[in-house]
Design brief:
Layout: E1 18-21, H1 24-29, H2 31-34, E2 38-41, E3 47-50, E4 57-61, H3 82-91
Antiparallel strand pairs: 1-2, 2-3, 3-4
């Protein structure tokens, strides 16, 4: 398992097989998920927001998500998602 997130492997189990999923709870809870896509790791079920530019894994998303856990930009293409930045600012208050 990789200890550093590379946007291609699951940070939880090191898996590299993912599928698109629809998670209504995540969409209602996190605005950036509502406007984006989620992929789930086939190995452990961890969910990730997909980068709107290159399609890599942008950041892990889970029910107890804290602002410090959210990547501010894609580790593959350096895209900064404005919805993620807006959520980070709102939740930090």
């Amino acid at each position: 398992m990789s200890s550093e997130f590379d946007g291609k492997h699951c940070i939880q189990c090191g898996g590299e097989s993912f599928r698109l999923v629809n998670d209504e709870w995540m969409k209602r809870t996190f605005r950036f998920v509502e406007k984006g896509q989620l992929k789930m790791c086939d190995g452990c079920g961890a969910k990730y927001l997909v980068c709107g530019q290159c399609g890599s894994l942008f950041t892990r998303v889970h029910p107890a998500l804290e602002t410090w856990e959210v990547n501010q930009k894609c580790v593959v293409c350096s895209y900064e998602d404005p919805e993620v930045k807006a959520w980070d600012g709102v939740s930090a208050r």
